[in-house]
């Protein structure tokens, strides 16, 4: 990783995704987690305060060392044991059927080979295990999609490969997950090209 990816981008992500007005979405994504959890794109640990009591442990996958350091205070206050256990969501260092739940918050937009990451999550989840996620992505309105396509090259350049227009429902279903609940909407207070949100739970076949 370069200086920008290691030292600048984690702070930028923490600033943009750490806003308190996004906390209700984090709460929704985490609310039904249970058992052993793998979290991809752990970042600076913004989800830690929202882990429910039904979670027994969290294995955090995060490439940026700075993000892990920034999580120190939240980790110290956590009632759930959290370990940094991987660097790359596309190649998870876990055995098959290791986790009951998986968590992703604003991460699937950025992983270069998102299909590989989702296949890995299916592999490490137990049969019937659940993927819980909140992501921004492809807007439902064609007019907004035009702007997403226009902004996407710049977005990827300055935001570490983040895509504005990934179809989150399609990529999750194409990876073999079955969506058991899904809510898609525009987040108030966010410009629509960036504010098309999906909060969902998907089950591993």
UniProtKB/TrEMBL annotation:
Residues 38-132 form the Methyltransferase type domain. Gene3D superfamilies: Vaccinia Virus protein VP39. One of its GO terms (molecular function) is methyltransferase activity. The keyword Transferase applies. GO terms for biological process: methylation. It holds the Pfam family Methyltransf_11. SUPFAM superfamilies: S-adenosyl-L-methionine-dependent methyltransferases. Keywords: Methyltransferase, Transferase. PANTHER family: METHYLTRANSFERASE LIKE 7A (PTHR45036:SF1), METHYLTRANSFERASE LIKE 7B (PTHR45036). This is Class I SAM-dependent methyltransferase. It comes from Nocardia acididurans. The lineage of its organism: Bacteria, Bacillati, Actinomycetota, Actinomycetes, Mycobacteriales.
